[in-house]
């Protein structure tokens, strides 16, 4: 099969991530025709060769030698000094104030002093005002400590240095957040589903916990936590802790998280939230108007937990509940322990988006239980989770579904590798590779990471690999580890125990080289072969595929149909597709994020009004960034993007706002640089210099915008 036949992705794929939530239904009018989405539909076409036969990208970078296990681990995205002192417990006493859009109160840290000569406690903070720092004396009394707040680094925030000459067992900081806290979003009632009460929620990953709690904001440190939270009496407050399904809404709430977590799993939400159970240990928190729909959508959650437990051992976190957030949530989901935060864009009526829940649940093992020590090892969280997600999907919904999702992911990865800096194509990053952890290359971290584990699984077979992975989760449970530690464990417990199956050179090629190693396993999808044939036939003849075929298509097949299109089509071709499939106006974000950029690039003006409504309604970066990126490619589109963004901004999360502002600013800079009049005497007029001027060092002063928004 021709490589372009199925690997020819649109640019939309370049700027998007697919591994979390790939499945969307079509608009409601088409639902009945597509309702079978997740079942194994009747075989529609011959299981022909799959479209992933194209050669794997060549390894482009020189192999970096694995780090020695004894090497000192440094988290360059934190001011904390874990080799001197570690927080073992965090006690919060907070007040949530919707009027001022602030959280204020105290954070008390139980400290383990590792360096007995240390005299300072260094904490991370961002846009937080510090009123007081105190230390607990041996006499049980609190006394003031000197402190200093450093200048603000655009990525790291401000270092809070507290003088602790006596190394107190506990330190207490009194503080207040800023209304602009990067890790919090405050929504007016009008931006919620119910429109009656305001809403607030946190997103701490990657390094935004420091914007609402001053703390050692590095995944190298794990701590238990407790919290007392005061809020308006009509607001239910939830945290990534022991939420009580029967909690009385009285404005005064207490929480305990008895398992040690890294700071990025600290989470809070407050609003008009009600609970409805799914199973004995799972349920949904959502606004009242959303909760029934959410329960119906996520009804398989209990089955997913059972499936994951059979593979990887007991779920160790007590309850597993879901919190459905407003559409402005910048991610698909966030694996906050005991309470996954999820976008409502996955609630579409036919359970076709449940791979998002499989992903977030999988983090209960990969990520929350065994955690990356620094952002340089992000694949340990996301790659392993994407692998586990696929196993859950396969177990519940069949190999066809898992295979289609893997093909879509790997096509995206191959496309991304065409432009991605080789140093960011490595699973294990080196110090300095990643300036801002929000900008990690998602396809590499998620898809290449999962592909590596799929390679191991294929070589060893599930009878060997599954128990090994379960053992890995057990061995490192509640620890934060590096890629070097993973590698050592892999060598000792899999490679050396089962000789002549995989070499460490092969392992190291996956971990430390760019690209995908030769010999990577391919995945076959017969269903996509049918899609390819349908698309190619239409391109050659303008004859749409027989509805008998397309009526059976799942969202994954529609995604593949669109991704295989050329970069641009003729407007009349788009009109033909639109008339037949109602792409414009689709509530299905996975379709929208591919259709609108194609329409924009092709000059299909009919899609514009609905495109505008979509980006103003939805704040999930993955879904809207490809559309903004397509818009800003033309001056007229840039103007439209700016107008849409101005209307949407009040409802966007700060993380999304930063991303959109970055894309718009970059486009404007580019436009400005290309209109600079030629000046023979000026050095900047040389083509090389002009080129360098097009890429500003800093796209946005607060939150530099990723071109490829990672999901969680
Ligand atoms: Zn994830």
Largest sheet: 7 strands, mixed
Return the average pLDDT rounded to an integer. 86
Radius of gyration: 25 Å
Provide the CATH superfamily of the domain at 3-51 and 525-693.
Peptidase M1, leukotriene A4 hydrolase/aminopeptidase C-terminal domain
Distinct small molecules bound, one entry per kind: zinc ion
Question: If you had to describe this structure to a student in words, what would you say it looks like?
Answer:
It is an enzyme of class 3 (hydrolase). Its cofactor is Zn(2+). With 712 residues, the protein is α+β, with helices and mostly antiparallel strands. Among the domains are: 3-51 and 525-693, Serine Threonine Protein Phosphatase 5, Tetratricopeptide repeat; 373-512, Neutral Protease, domain 2 (Orthogonal Bundle), CATH 1.10.390. It has 22 helices and 21 strands. The strands form five sheets. A seven-stranded mixed β-sheet has the order 5-4-8-2-1-11-13, with no helix packed on it. Strands 15-16-17-19-18 form a five-stranded mixed β-sheet, with helices on one face. A four-stranded antiparallel β-sheet has the order 9-10-14-12, with no helix packed on it. Helix 5 (301-312) crosses helix 7, helix 10 (462-475) packs across helix 11 (483-495) and helix 15 packs parallel to helix 17. The longest helix is centred in the last third of the chain and has 21 residues, at 654-674. It is globular. 52% of the residues are buried. The structure holds zinc ion (ZN). The site of zinc ion (ZN) has 5 residues, from helix 7.
């Amino acid at each position: 099969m021709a490589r372009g036949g199925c690997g020819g992705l649109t640019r939309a794929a370049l700027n998007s991530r697919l591994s979390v939530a790939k499945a969307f239904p079509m608009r409601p009018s088409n639902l009945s025709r597509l309702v079978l989405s997740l079942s194994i539909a009747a075989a529609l076409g011959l299981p022909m060769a799959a479209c992933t036969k194209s050669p794997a990208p060549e390894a482009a970078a020189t192999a970096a030698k694995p780090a020695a296990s004894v090497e000192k681990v440094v988290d360059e995205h934190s001011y904390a000094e874990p080799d001197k002192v570690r927080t073992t417990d965090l006690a919060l006493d907070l007040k949530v104030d919707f009027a001022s859009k602030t959280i204020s109160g105290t954070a008390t840290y139980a400290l383990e002093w590792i360096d007995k000569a240390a005299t300072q406690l260094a904490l991370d903070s961002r846009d937080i005002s510090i009123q007081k720092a105190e230390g607990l004396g041996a006499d049980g009394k609190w006394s003031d400590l000197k402190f200093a707040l450093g200048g603000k680094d655009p990525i790291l925030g401000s270092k809070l240095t507290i003088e602790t000459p006596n190394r107190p067992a506990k330190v207490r900081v009194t503080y207040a957040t800023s209304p602009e806290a990067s890790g919090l979003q405050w929504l007016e009632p009008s931006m919620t589903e119910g429109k009656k009460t305001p809403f607030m929620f946190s997103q701490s990953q990657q390094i935004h916990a420091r914007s609402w709690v001053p703390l050692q904001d590095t995944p190298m440190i794990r701590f238990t936590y407790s919290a007392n939270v005061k809020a308006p009496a009509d607001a239910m407050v939830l945290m990534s802790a022991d939420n009580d399904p029967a909690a009385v809404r009285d404005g005064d709430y207490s929480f305990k998280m008895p398992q040690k977590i890294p700071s990025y799993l600290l989470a809070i939400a407050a609003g008009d939230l009600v609970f409805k159970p799914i199973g004995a240990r799972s349920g949904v928190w959502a606004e009242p108007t959303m909760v029934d729909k959410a329960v119906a959508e996520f009804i398989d959650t209990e089955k997913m937990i059972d499936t994951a437990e059979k593979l990887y051992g007991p779920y160790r976190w007590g309850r597993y509940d879901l919190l459905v957030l407003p559409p402005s949530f910048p991610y698909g989901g966030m694996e906050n322990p005991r309470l996954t935060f999820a976008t409502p864009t996955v609630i579409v009526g036919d359970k076709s988006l449940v791979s998002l829940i499989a992903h977030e649940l999988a983090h209960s093992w990969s990520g929350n239980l065994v955690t990356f020590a620094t952002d340089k090892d992000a694949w340990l969280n996301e790659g392993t989770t994407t692998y586990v997600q696929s196993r859950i999907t396969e177990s519940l919904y069949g190999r066809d579904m898992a295979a289609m999702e893997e093909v879509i992911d790997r096509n995206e990865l191959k496309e991304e590798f065409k432009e991605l800096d080789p140093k960011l194509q490595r699973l294990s990053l080196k110090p300095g590779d990643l300036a801002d952890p929000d900008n990690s290359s998602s396809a590499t971290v998620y898809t290449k990471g999962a592909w590596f584990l799929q390679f191991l699984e294929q070589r060893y077979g599930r009878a060997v690999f599954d128990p090994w992975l379960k053992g890995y989760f057990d061995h490192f449970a509640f620890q934060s580890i590096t890629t070097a530690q993973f590698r050592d464990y892999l060598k000792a417990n899999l490679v050396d125990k089962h000789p002549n199956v995989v070499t460490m050179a092969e392992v190291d090629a996956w971990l430390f080289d760019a690209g995908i190693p030769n010999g990577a396993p391919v995945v076959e999808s017969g269903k996509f072969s049918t899609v390819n044939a349908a698309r190619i036939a239409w391109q050659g003849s303008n004859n749409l595929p027989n509805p008998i075929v397309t009526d059976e298509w799942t969202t994954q097949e529609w995604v593949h149909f669109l991704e295989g299109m050329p970069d641009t089509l003729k407007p009349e071709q788009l009109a033909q597709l639109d008339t037949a499939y109602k792409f414009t106006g689709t509530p299905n974000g996975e379709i929208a994020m591919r259709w609108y950029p194609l329409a924009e690039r092709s000059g299909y003006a009919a899609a514009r009004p609905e495109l505008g409504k979509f980006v103003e309604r939805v704040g999930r970066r993955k879904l809207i960034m490809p559309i903004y990126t397509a818009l800003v490619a033309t001056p007229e589109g840039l103007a439209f993007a700016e107008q849409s963004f101005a209307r949407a901004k009040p409802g966007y999360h700060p993380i999304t706002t930063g991303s959109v502002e970055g894309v718009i600013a970059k486009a404007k800079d580019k436009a400005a640089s290309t209109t600079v009049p030629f000046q023979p005497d000026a050095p900047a007029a040389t083509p090389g210099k002009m080129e360098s001027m097009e890429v500003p060092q800093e796209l946005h002063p607060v939150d530099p915008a990723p071109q490829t928004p990672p999901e969680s």
